Amino acid sequence: MNPKVSWILYSLILLSLSSLGCRQKAQVILTSGTIIPLHFKGKDGKVVLNTELALTRTAHKVGLMQRTKENFPYDRGMLFVFEKKKMQSFWMKNTILPLSIAFIDEKGVIFQIEHMKPHDLNSTKSVKESYYVLETHKGWFQDHGIKVGAKIENFNQHVGALKRAVKNQK
Q1: Of 81, 125, 148, 160, whose CB has the highest number of CB atoms within 10 Å?
Q2: How many independent structural domains does the chain possess?
């Protein structure tokens, strides 16, 4: 599905769910490949990173392999969501683009940012356990003034749907 169409559909689902009011508790169903907007407070105000979800083991293994600037624009990221909190380890096998990787805690706060080189088979490991890992173009965080300690501002809006989605996609 076209990423713009996916993002528009997700936005429409959220909008329609919000119009239901507090009487009904509807659930958003997310799948790997769905694009969700993540909001950060950057050096020049609000910054949005359109983020593709990686929810399954297959999506985790493939990640951003073989992506190029043409099919992975600069304002795009990939959020890896894991069912269990654990030490995370990533490498760059078959990955063409240089990437920055952020390890994120259960409250949506970045606790570690690293940079990874194309085709590097050395692992980049988290310093503590995490459910969430965000990859994007190398330098994206720095370019927007996003550092360790930054919080995904709309994380609470997504966390419930993310947890349900990863459990449903085993």
Answers
A1: 81
A2: 1
